[in-house]
């Protein structure tokens, strides 16, 4: 996998969504030991994390797929790697992807897959049963396939070419932040690398800090006491994640207002919003 390490270094890659990795003794072979790895139960789909500073959490492990969650622009974003052999039934892989999607309902996700289906929507000149099943699945879930029909082929084997690798986004919101490029460099595989770049905007913000050294605690405590009972009641009465998020944001703003009325504000400089992935980085 020396070619992979060179590609990671050249393209400053954060995460690798891999299918059919070389596995020995239950581990992905040929990669640095400090790279974190996760695999599907059948070891045919994997996620590799070369960037040790990137925090990720394993979301789900199924027979044909593996998913982790990262934070993107302050929101959770799940990354899925999935594989289905051309000799196997496509439905179990689609079912695994469906179960992961259901577990992150309402959240963004990006899937890198090798599902071995033919369809004119992603470059083939014909449609087969697998391709039609994939297309029906994507449409039924209102997902977005990022592959362009005229993109370069990603598979070259015995004189044939193909487009079995699909990049699938949860919505147009994340698809508009994402670009895909088939890299024309040596991979030591029949498949080309696909560079997937998520462009994350950087905004300049100022953090408000309060002077607590010189008093103001008593009026602050009195204001918080007034807020506490109502806040607890509001949280307990929410029955969905959107209303709960809105309630917590409202409480957060009320606490800030209590601080502003109780303490003086420190002067502080501006800083840059931390960005998980900036335009120079990519998830491949």
UniProtKB/TrEMBL annotation:
Domain Endonuclease/exonuclease/phosphatase, first and last residues per copy: 79-194
GO molecular-function term, one example from the UniProt record: catalytic activity
Region forming the signal peptide: none
Domain of life: Eukaryota
InterPro entries xref list: Endo/exonu/phosph_ase_sf, Endo/exonuclease/phosphatase
Pfam families: Exo_endo_phos_2
PANTHER family xrefs: DOMAIN-CONTAINING PROTEIN, PUTATIVE-RELATED, ENDONUCLEASE_EXONUCLEASE_PHOSPHATASE DOMAIN-CONTAINING PROTEIN
Protein name from the UniProt record: Endonuclease/exonuclease/phosphatase domain-containing protein
């Amino acid at each position: 996998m020396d070619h992979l390490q060179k590609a990671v270094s050249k393209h400053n890659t954060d995460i690798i969504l891999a299918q059919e990795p070389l596995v020995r003794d239950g581990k992905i072979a040929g990669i640095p030991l400090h790279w974190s790895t996760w695999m599907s139960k059948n070891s045919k789909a994997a996620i590799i994390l070369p960037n040790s500073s990137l925090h990720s959490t394993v979301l789900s492990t199924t027979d044909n797929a593996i998913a982790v969650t990262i934070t993107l622009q302050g929101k959770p974003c799940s990354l899925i790697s999935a594989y289905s052999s051309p000799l196997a039934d496509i439905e179990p892989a689609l079912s695994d992807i469906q179960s992961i999607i259901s577990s992150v309902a309402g959240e963004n996700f990006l899937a890198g897959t090798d599902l071995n289906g033919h369809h004119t929507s992603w470059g083939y000149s014909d449609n087969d049963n697998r391709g039609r099943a994939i297309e029906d699945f994507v449409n039924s879930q209102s997902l977005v396939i990022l592959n362009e029909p005229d993109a370069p082929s990603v598979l070259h084997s015995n004189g044939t070419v193909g487009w079995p690798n699909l990049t699938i986004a949860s919505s147009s919101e994340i698809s508009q932040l994402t670009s895909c490029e088939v890299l024309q460099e040596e991979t030591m595989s029949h498949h080309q690398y696909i560079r997937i770049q998520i462009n994350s905007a950087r905004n300049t913000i100022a953090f408000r800090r309060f002077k607590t050294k010189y008093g103001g605690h008593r009026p602050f405590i009195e204001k918080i006491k007034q807020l506490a009972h109502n806040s607890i009641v509001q949280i307990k009465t929410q029955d969905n994640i959107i209303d709960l998020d809105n309630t917590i944001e409202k409480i957060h703003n009320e606490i800030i207002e209590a601080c502003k009325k109780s303490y003086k504000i420190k002067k502080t400089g501006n800083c840059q919003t931390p960005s998980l992935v900036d335009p120079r980085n990519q998830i491949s």
